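Appendix B. Raw example, untouched.
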Amino acid sequence: MLTGKTAIITGCLKGIGRSTLDVFAKNGASVFACAQYQTEEFEDYCTRLNQESEGEIIPTYFDLSRDEEIKEAAMFIRKQKRPADILVNIAGYTKDARFQMVSMEDMQKTFKINFFSQIAFTQYIVKMMIRNKKGGAIINTSSISGIDGSIGQLSYSASKAALIAATKVMAEELGEHLIRVNAIAPGFIDTDMYNDVPKEILDRKIAKTKLKHMGRPEDVAETILYLASDASRHITGQIIRIDGGKGI
């Protein structure tokens, strides 16, 4: 579905990002596999993907909390002289706390990583997309918390809601360049994010969903693949829930 296309994916070290990298590679894309830091395991994984897939996998390291690293990563990608066809913003951060216990420091860090830095990185990549004159696809990762809110996640929910609003504005403004902008809103997905949630609480939340089970990273990755591919060429400005049927 993505043969001949080049994608930039953030958050590839694990979870949804790793699954999306895997699905994109299997579908023929060349990928700048962005991660916060380098590990031997991740390098080996990218090497295996290179051997098994049609496209090229290029590990790219930068920290979304550091402006200079974001700029350097964007310049590195530009210097490779590849078309920027797809951008998938997956990397994120959360530090849960009830409203009255939220510190301004934690809120600022959450917004920095989940919103401000992602907008800045997207601005760099969009310049490349516009120069290509081939259109493109941007997929932002929000959350059902950004739509419905979630107890103990004021900073996270607010940052993800901001990303939803930005997605809609970007879709309006970039449509004239044939750049589609959509967002996904995952629910309870089996990733490290929920490792510290007590089982009884998680079970209670999952029981409120229509499908009564936790999602897999692959479920999200397959939806991202659809939004990145030409199969969704007439879809933009949408927020797609991936939550097993509404439940918070």
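End of appendix B.
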